[in-house]
Amino acid sequence: MACLRQFRPYVSWPRHFTLVIKRNLINGAKYHHSLDTFLQYAKQQGLPVNTTYFVGTVYEYVVLESLTRSARMRLEHSGGTGDNGVDLRGTMSTYESEKKIPVIIQCKYEQKKPGARFFRELEGSLVNASPETLAVLAAPLPATAAGKRILTSSDKAMAFCLVLGYEEGGVMTQMIWNSAAEKLLGGLRIARVYREVKAEGEMITVQSIALIDTKLSAC
């Protein structure tokens, strides 16, 4: 298990975005599949940027891009009616096995630390999932002590990722998981990395983390 503390505080959501990508309306397909396409969709629909829907969806895509980049995941946006609280679905790869680990992710962009209730909901999302599925809770603030107790005591494979918001660069700064998840993740461990990201309108270098394979890094 690995843990790094958050290095920037929670900030309020931006009021304006630059919207550039074309909206997909072909044959009733989803209107958006990435952060850029959602922003374009929001602009064309005139969605207020201060709504829970807008802020939450932007954060979901920020998490998708961050975990794809840093946590060896391939993800799709899946939020909707009957999704059991799951916002992202996909797979996670390890070098120890050719098999892809199924992953489901719940994103919580709130001004308070995620507590026990959120982790119980995460555990509940695994009721109908295969035993090999990893459930991840993503939030921009560290989990509470009560939340971590639910995570570590569960016999379900669960993890927590601290992913900063859009204005802070959207990087992952912490990932912790329980013993059930350790069996799935094998030799994956946390490494400190530095990334150049756009935050508050400027390109800056920030410290983040990434999952690496310990056997490969030792070669």
What does this structure look like?
By secondary structure, the chain is α/β, with parallel strands linked by helices. Helices cover 27% and strands 27% of the residues. The chain is built from six helices and eight strands, in the order H-H-E-E-E-H-E-H-E-E-H-E-E-H. Strands 1-2-3-4-5-6 form a six-stranded mixed beta sheet, with helices on both faces. A two-stranded antiparallel ribbon has the order 7-8. Strand 3, helix 3 and strand 4 (134-139) form a beta-alpha-beta unit. Helix 3 (116-124) runs parallel beside helix 4. The longest helix is centred in the first third of the chain and has 19 residues, at 52-70. The protein is globular. Residues 1-29 have low confidence and may be disordered.
What layout of secondary structure does this protein have?
Elements: H1 35-45, H2 52-70, E1 73-77, E2 88-92, E3 101-107, H3 116-124, E4 134-139, H4 145-153, E5 158-163, E6 172-177, H5 179-185, E7 188-199, E8 202-213, H6 214-217
Parallel strand pairs: 3-4, 4-5
Antiparallel strand pairs: 1-2, 2-3, 5-6, 7-8
One letter per element, helices H and strands E, the order comes to HHEEEHEHEEHEEH
Number of helices: 6
| Average of per-residue pLDDT values | 80
Fraction in beta strands: 25-35%
Query: Are there runs of 5+ residues with pLDDT below 50, and where?
Result: 1-29
Task: Indicate the radius of gyration in whole angstroms.
Answer: 17 Å
Strand order of the largest sheet: 1-2-3-4-5-6
The helix content, as a percent range, equals 25-40%
- Distance from N terminus to C terminus (CA atoms, Å) equals 22 Å
Largest sheet, strands/sense/barrel? 6 strands, mixed
